Amino acid sequence: MSPVSDNTISSHRDTPSSTPIPYSSTRSKSATVRPHPKPAYPVPKLRIECRDLNHDGAEVFFSQTIISSDLAAAVSTAPSILYEATQNNSHIPPTRSVSLFLHSFNGVAYTAGSELDDDHKEIHFSLDYIDSISQPRQQDEIQGVLVHEMVHCWQWNALGTCPSGLVEGIADFVRLKAGLSPPHWKKERGGEWDAGYQHTAYFLDWIEGNWGKGSVRRINESMMNKRYIEDEFWRDLFGIGVKELWTEYSNTLPENEELSGKDDDRQNTQSPCLKSHWIG
Fold it and tell me: Cβ contacts of residue 92 below 8 Å, gap of 6+?
């Protein structure tokens, strides 16, 4: 073999060989995949106004509440239990803001539409009631009332024709599912199904357990754009009338079955809402 000249060797050393980069399907795909953003629940603007900082109830409220997180938690709890988030959330009421007013009045709390329009909600919470809550219950009771009232900012009411007991029952159902039911709440056989509050909330919870998860969501969303006609409403949803459902539920309970609790919390049995202005 003839020897290789120095010039040839130098030429090979000075000219680097090119190595092609292997094709990577993983890298190519990851560069082009752009997933849709995960659906999220609407977040309204939040405001708070305390009309008497010297009231003892104001001291209780602000000592037991981290308002920036607790009010936001109440806002997120209500729609997350009542609705499934979608890309446009067109099935959720268009609540744009929620203002919390703390002031002195008889009763517990109420929710109303603002003077601006019904997409802006006002929650009025009694400082007198807050001051009356027993110390061990203060934090949970305040949050429980906030969640209950926040439901009224997000629920449907069959164009104003829904029984008030069902409206209040749905609000307390959300409070129950959020783990904020007070110790004195109990399940009851007697009375009417739409007596409201926890009485109806436990009935709705039984429906949720026996007719499938999401049943209360269906009840609420069925009141979005049509009037409430009782027999037709319940038969369309469950194939049975509400009075028959109530009888079935009542038959599962012994007399005066109590969920849990102590008699010393009976001071907090007053209905949370005095008056309300609902989404129509």
Answer: 41, 42, 79, 83, 154
Longest dimension (CA), the chain: 112
Q: Which two tokens stand for residue 155?
A: 């629920």
User: Could you tell me whether strands 45-50 and 120-126 are parallel, antiparallel, or unpaired per DSSP bridges?
Assistant: unpaired
Which residues 6+ apart lie within 8 Å of 213 measured at CB? none
CB of 276 within 8 A of CB of 167? yes
**What's the token pair of residue 129?**
């009631």
Q: Helix or strand or coil: residue 120?
A: strand
pTM of the full structure: 0.80
- The enclosing H or E element of 45 equals strand 45-50
Tokens, residue 275: 């008056």
Q: Which of 182, 181, 124, 116 has its CA nearest to residue 150?
A: 124
Amino acid at 20: P
Q: How far apart are CA 98 and CA 111, in angstroms?
A: 10
Question: 163: which residues sit within 8 A by CB, 6+ positions away?
Answer: 194, 228, 230
Q: Residue type for 265, please?
A: D
Question: pLDDT by residue (tens digit) across 27-57?
Answer: 445 555 666 667 888 889 999 999 999 999 9
By C-alpha distance, which of 149, 137, 259, 147 is closest to 199?
259
